[in-house]
Design brief:
Elements: E1 15-20, E2 24-29, E3 34-38, H1 39-44, E4 52-53, E5 58-59, E6 72-78, E7 81-86, E8 91-95, H2 96-103, E9 126-128, H3 129-134, H4 136-149, E10 151-155, H5 161-168, E11 174-175, E12 182-186, E13 201-204, E14 216-223, E15 232-236, H6 237-247, H7 249-257, E16 260-266, E17 270-276, E18 279-281, E19 287-290, H8 304-322, E20 327-330, E21 337-341, E22 345-349, E23 360-366, H9 368-382
Parallel strand pairs: 9-10
Antiparallel strand pairs: 1-2, 2-3, 4-5, 6-7, 7-8, 10-21, 11-23, 12-23, 13-22, 14-21, 14-23, 15-20, 15-22, 16-17, 18-19
Helix pairs in contact: 4-9, 6-7, 6-8, 7-8
Amino acid sequence: MLDTPRQSTATGGLVRAIRNEGDRIAVDLDNGGTGRLSTRWLRLACECEVCGDTASGKRWLTPADVPVGVRAAALDVSGGEVSVVWDDGHVSRYGLDFLASHAGGWGPVRFRPQLWSSDLSGKLGRFAFDAVVEDNEALFGSLRALRDHGIAMLTGVPAETEATARVAGRYGPIRETSYGKVFDLISRPDARVAGETARAQIPHTDEPFRYSPPGFIFFHAIRTGAGSGGTSLMVDGFHVAELMRTNTPELFDLLTRQGVTFHREHGGEVFFSAEAHVISLDAAGAVTGIRYNDRCLAPQWASEDRIDGLIEALAELTRLIRDPQNQFQHQLQPGEVLLFDNQRVLHGRSAFDPTLAVRHLRSCNIDRDGVHSAFRTLARRFAPQEAEAVLYQGSIF
């Protein structure tokens, strides 16, 4: 409901008085601040039983039902709410803090992710498998870590195939792809994908060739052959994007505006191709998503005067991704799970010798909106002040 009580994020006050100014409603706050609301917006914001509820989708009032010249016939502040009688006789009621939060026009609070580089080890959230599976507060702690850093680790996970889906399902519905619902990454001579080889892999995001790439990825270590190589390399894509914005702004701008094509084909089975921005921004210019895998880059289409710049932008991003100063390195052990935001965190690994040990990871995906939904739902219970913030939405376009 729009009138669900919450503290004003724009002003920190509550409505003390309200005045009719025709197509605007003037608002005085108890902290001395002031603001103005569009009268038409206020009418559309009504969520009474007649107008319906936007949160549930049982909504009956549409923008077309609110005329340009709508006016408030009477206003009243009492009993912890604002009552408005409209010129057609309809009555609306709004929470004082709801109106205060909109009166300044600053918009909702936007969450600011915490960036990291090779220093992640001291910040990485580690959570016990049993606690996450059985306790919602522990699950919320891991979801908060995913929100903050885009990555978390689970420990004490049974090195059994059934455990992968059991823990992943706590974070949202598992997404089935052409590779299956939960799939095994085991080095083999007839490898279908790079993850089944023993070769080193530059940190990348998975499946950028899909219109909607996977949101969060789970890597569950069954066998790792510790000491034979295969060290995981994790990179905060938001961090390297900000490095580009600071140091090479013209290349950063290219990756936010120029479409880049990624593709993947398995003969006679699948042929994926998607054009997207490597770096996605929100309306305020904040980085919200990364989509990059050097192995899936198609031959690019760009005008003659832009193609070399685009290649250099991709080259600079690759250099930053490969720089050890930007990489968190970790040797996964059996019973550990790395879960991370595939539209923020790039993952790779060093080469390993498959003749010394078998490296077996199980992997599955959960959509980003599912994980964020789980976070918001539990935040209502454990940290209500965090539930309303706008989270980054990802590299969709």
